[in-house]
Amino acid sequence: MSLAALRAAAEGLQGVAVKTPLLRIPDLDARCGVPIFLKAEHLQPIGAFKVRGAYTAASRIPAELRSRGLITYSSGNHGQAVAWVARRLNTRAVVVMPERAPTIKVEGVRRLGGEVIIAGNSSAERYTKAQQMVEEQGFIMVPPFESVEVIAGQGTCGLEIIEECPEVESILVPVGGGGLIAGIASATAALKPEVQVIGVEPVGAPKLARALEAGRPVKLDHTESLADGLLPLSIGTIPFGILSGIVRQSVLVNEAEIEEALRFLYRQGGLSVEPSGAVTTAAILAGRVRLSGPTVAVISGGNVDPAVLERLVQS
Fold first, then answer.
1. Are 34 and 292 in contact (CB under 8 A)?
2. pLDDT single digits (tens) 66-77
3. Which of 3.20.20.80, 3.40.50.2020, 3.40.50.1100, 3.40.47.10 would CATH assign to domain 3-48+147-314?
4. Is CB count within 10 Å lower at the N or C end of the chain?
């Protein structure tokens, strides 16, 4: 993806997405021996980076088509982003969500004016239902990651990281469908190709790790993790095509490490982060990556159920 495409997306997001800060936790720096910066995407309007891609894609749909209503399939954060964007663009939003979607994310979609349809638990089931509604009712699809427009929007996060931290050597990125890491990889390739972009996934959902081994997306039989936003069965075809040759590593963290990272961020940094957003910190704390210089860990979202957060931080 070209630098021009990323800059165009950044221009379109002015006044919409927040240029989130890079936060520091002294104890994290001390543990690692190198500067660690946390890209605070949980401070976006809907509590996650997804607003970048959702707005970029939806705002480029012609108004006469957009008036039919937007639809997507999502475990939560992309759905909230589409609902938020639809309200801003004065159109309808329908979000197909899994049975196991966290209540806080289902309620978030509804609070933002979106309509929720529950369909199975796999991404494939949600996609099938959403596509059926496109064909039968004329909705316009805003995919969570299989879209160059969505990826361009997510890539603006990478532009900001390099602008704010030009000395960065490594960027750690949570991996769900791959839109965020593909966008960030595009930004680094264009501006600072020597930067190492590393994916981070739960042990129970190693989509990118398997794809990198095979040289192509691989569909897993099952995914499971407390990190509910990182559970697609496969990395997206479009994201993988963009990140191939740039991203060479995806490390895995287990459930205990994710929980410990969530506690650390809350206790040491005062940050309420959802498990999916804590995986990059988990990789650092667990020593899953070798860091030789300034590192940015993307906190992708903060939409954590208060009861879950309380249970984890008190355990």
1. yes
2. 999 999 999 899
3. 3.40.50.1100
4. C
